[in-house]
Design brief:
This protein has helices at 66-73, 91-96, 104-107, 134-140, 175-185, 251-264, 276-280, 310-323, 363-376, 391-397, 401-411, 420-425; strands spanning 19-22, 38-41, 57-61, 78-79, 114-121, 124-128, 149-156, 158-159, 164-172, 191-196, 208-215, 268-275, 298-305, 329-335, 349-357, 380-381. It is an alpha+beta fold. The chain folds into 2 domains: 19-160 and 394-425, Uridine Diphospho-n-acetylenolpyruvylglucosamine Reductase, domain 3; 164-392, Alpha-Beta Plaits, CATH 3.30.70.2520. The longest helix is centred in the middle third of the chain and has 14 residues, at 251-264. The relative contact order is 0.16. The chain binds flavin-adenine dinucleotide.
């Protein structure tokens, strides 16, 4: 496709000596920004090779979006192995954040399905895999772009018979009920996710809607769908037309919306057939949905704690109501064991993702308290969604970060690869003790 790869070079006399890659900018914080430096637009590295009809292996460019891959792959019965909540992310961004989906408890994260990748670094160009320079491969998996620019990767896709999902949905009256349901039966489903109402209180604290499912086999589709086993998803035309001056999402609207959503959901419904896009990517249904939060925007916060620390999830959900800061969207999932990446976010346990309208008084101290709770039990927050963590907590959350820094010193001795996130958190720099 006519793109040449040259190693990233550093000359300290140049004004723009720092470099970081950017995909589709779907990380919520400053991971793909580089004040005073160069942000590499990876859209030129967009390509999709032929899918091996037996193994599902396909070579794709680092700047290719998951949306583009699935448009091609679904036609021949292959699908993305790990889908985050939006399909508008690039392969490079998915590798750099080692993204997880609703199937982590079964399948692990994105990089478990990366057979090999080509990385452009200041020290040269490397083709690496879990067997070839495994250290550099796993440092890149979740390494937030700090080991180089992924220009190419070979992914292992999964086989699907249809573009539909067969789902079971149930309402759970409180947080304990949903957590028990997930512990008892998540292993029966490939995908599982719970929407949690963080504005409910008392005995309904954390009431939830739990949705689980798998790819629908052809036999599960009724006659009505028999002619469209594979329906290639079209992009949504619905969009928020402009930035609202004030957020449409405040404590009262959140409470009203949550109550409505909970009641509207079926008490229990098994075997519903739904399109794959509404199951995996509900937010992609409204373009620029973020504008609903007004000029101040919103804050995302996601943490994970071990399976024995469900109490931290309970405390987190319990803190928000009394503080008058209910999360506008709260999603609970269970992770299986993490992969070997030293900066990869998932570890086995509970993960809770929370959205808050920015600028609410009391939000910064609430999130600081949450950080303390999480780090106190050996948990961590997700850097792809962070813009505010205190740097002194990073090394406690990611105790193996030194491994990433050592690899980076090998491929980037002059520390050309930097982002606003890496500088804010002191990644690659000694933190004064
Ligand atoms: C609605 C929504 C839902 C989401 N749901 C989930 C979810 O369920 N699970 C989850 O894990 N994440 C989720 N995310 C976060 C998102 O998947 C990650 O932030 C992902 O990294 C974004 O990819 P991107 O291409 O937009 O990368 P960017 O946001 O542009 O960059 C993210 C990081 O990747 C690096 N990077 C980008 N391209 C390359 C490259 N070619 N080579 C090397 N490094 C590169 C950047 O330097 C940066 O550090 C969600 C985000 C949104 C907006």
């Amino acid at each position: 496709m006519g793109v040449t790869h040259t190693p990233l070079t550093s000359q300290s006399s140049e004004p723009h000596r720092w470099v970081i890659a950017r995909g589709l900018g779907r990380s919520y914080g400053d991971a793909a920004q580089c004040s005073g430096g160069v942000v590499v637009d990876t859209s030129a590295y967009s390509s999709i090779g032929l899918i091996d009809p037996v193994t599902g292996l396909v070579e794709v460019g680092g700047g290719t979006s998951l949306a583009a891959i699935m448009r091609v792959s679904l036609a021949s019965g292959w699908f993305i192995p790990v889908s985050p909540g939006t399909r508008h992310v690039t392969v490079g961004g998915a590798i750099a954040a080692d993204v997880h989906g609703k199937n982590h408890h079964r399948d692990g994260s994105f990089c478990s399905f990366v057979a090999s990748l080509t990385l452009v670094t200041p020290a040269g160009i490397f083709t690496i895999s879990p067997d070839e320079d495994a250290e550099l491969f796993w440092a890149t998996a979740g390494g937030m772009g700090l080991t180089g620019v992924v220009v190419k990767a070979t992914l292992r896709l999964i086989r699907v018979e249809t573009s539909w999902m067969e789902t079971d949905t149930e309402r759970c009256d409180d947080l304990d009920a949903v957590m028990s349901a997930m512990e008892e039966a998540d292993h029966n489903y490939r995908y599982s996710v719970a929407w949690v109402d963080c504005s409910s209180r008392g005995k309904h604290l954390g009431r939830s809607v739990l949705t689980r499912g798998d790819h629908a086999p052809i036999g599960a589709l009724g006659l009505a769908n028999a002619t469209s086993f594979i329906d290639i998803p079209a992009e949504s035309r619905v969009r928020v037309p402009f930035t609202l001056p004030l957020s449409a999402v405040g404590p009262h609207t959140v409470q009203a919306f949550n109550a409505l959503w909970f009641r509207k959901s079926p008490k229990r419904k098994c075997g519903a057939i739904v399109p794959l896009t509404s199951f995996f990517y509900p937010l992609d249904g409204i373009n620029e949905w973020n504008l609903l939060y007004g000029r101040r925007g919103f804050v995302q916060y996601q943490f994970v704690v071990g399976p024995q620390h469900a109490d931290v999830v309970r405390a987190a959900v319990g803190m928000m109501g009394p503080a008058g800061i209910p999360s506008s969207l709260a999603v609970l999932k269970r992770f299986g064991p993490g992969d070997p990446g030293p900066l990869s976010f998932p570890i086995e346990g509970w993960t809770l993702a929370l959205d808050f309208p920015a600028g609410l008084p009391g939000l910064p101290p609430l999130l600081d308290r949450l950080d303390e709770l999480v780090v106190g039990v050996g948990g961590r927050i997700y850097l792809a969604k962070d813009a505010r963590l205190r740097p002194e907590l990073l090394r406690a959350m990611y105790p193996r970060i030194g491994e990433l820094e050592a690899v980076r010193d090998r491929v980037d001795p002059d520390h050309v690869l930097q982002s606003d996130l890496s500088r804010r958190l002191g990644i690659g720099q000694k933190v004064p003790s």
